[in-house]
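We were asked to recover a plausible sequence for a given structure. The inputs and outputs are reproduced exactly as logged, with field labels preserved.

PROBLEM: sequence recovery
POSITIONS: 231
GIVEN STRUCTURE:
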């Protein structure tokens, strides 16, 4: 009975996405293969916390420096610069929260991460992350447009439209994470869209657009090489 109870307890805390990957890789998480407290390194939380904080601080310093320079450089006061500033602000806020909240909570091992305050911080982190991701979509679209339709770029990505794009990026980020998802059947179902499907869509939109841009650059280079040979 204890073994069955352990299986049920573990299974109840798995998200829909985790169930999907368990099915995909034919692996089941149960009391036999789950890690117990005795198996854990006693210094594990300190190691993970320090590593998390170190990488977060390095990335934060780089990101905030680039973002500040984008604000200061006059030549970057354009659509591309504004979108990158939006992306940088989102990334900087996420990294700052990791430095000031998540990494210390890992090191301390406090139960405060289960409180309402922690939930709201998690929501804010998710909003900032999505705001940065959505800004990256417009950045990728702008790069592609500038390469394929250079004469239309200045007409499409005007300053006014860029501000609208940024507003859309952050409004959709807020709308995406304005609700709380708990360990319920509905919450697990919604986690499929929030975790897995959303990530796949971001990869397709951003990565796909960047791949298309790279393809167009390669194609243009080949055309130029052929024209140089004929000339």
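RECOVERED SEQUENCE:
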């Amino acid at each position: 009975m204890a073994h069955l109870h352990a299986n049920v307890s573990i299974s109840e805390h798995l998200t829909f996405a985790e169930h999907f990957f368990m099915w995909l890789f034919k692996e089941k998480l149960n009391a036999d293969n789950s890690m117990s407290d005795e198996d854990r390194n006693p210094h594990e939380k300190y190691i993970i916390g320090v590593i998390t904080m170190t990488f977060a601080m390095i990335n934060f310093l780089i990101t905030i420096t680039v973002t500040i320079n984008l604000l200061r450089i006059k030549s970057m006061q354009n659509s591309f610069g504004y979108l990158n500033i939006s992306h940088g602000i989102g990334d900087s806020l996420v990294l700052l929260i990791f430095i000031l909240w998540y990494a210390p909570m890992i090191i301390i091992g406090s139960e405060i991460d289960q409180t309402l305050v922690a939930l709201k911080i998690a929501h804010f982190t998710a909003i900032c992350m999505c705001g940065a991701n959505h800004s990256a979509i417009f950045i990728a679209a702008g790069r592609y447009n500038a390469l394929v339709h250079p004469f239309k770029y200045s007409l499409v990505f005007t300053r006014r439209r860029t501000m609208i794009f940024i507003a859309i990026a952050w409004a959709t980020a807020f709308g995406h994470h304005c609700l709380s998802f708990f360990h319920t059947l509905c919450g697990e179902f919604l986690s499929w869209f929030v975790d897995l499907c959303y990530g796949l869509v971001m990869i397709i939109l951003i990565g796909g657009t960047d791949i298309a841009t790279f393809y167009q650059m390669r194609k243009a280079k080949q055309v130029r090489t052929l024209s140089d040979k004929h000339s």
